[in-house]
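So, read this over?
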Amino acid sequence: MSTPDRLPIKMLHDRVLVKLSREEGERRSAGGILIPATAQVSKRLSWAEVLAVGNHVRAVELGDKVLFSPDDRHEVEISGEDYLLLRERDIHAVAAQRVESNTGLYL
């Protein structure tokens, strides 16, 4: 069903549309310590899920999890939902089933 106020979106060039994997709030350390949302962590990178990619994006696919710096993002609201817009070059790592394991790390 199509309505006049809803238009399809196509990502351009090297842009990647993502949604944060979890809420930016309280989190727990590996040892179980609760870290409040107000705690300042300098330059903490974030994970997000890829929802759309531009036609020049080469290393990222829909559904991948990507690691990026919060400083390199642009926020956008689409139909009342908050998303982030990144450039492919600002993505530090990709986590996906198709990626060969070369770090020994897993999500």
Observations:
- The radius of gyration is 16 Å.
- The longest strand covers residues 46-53.
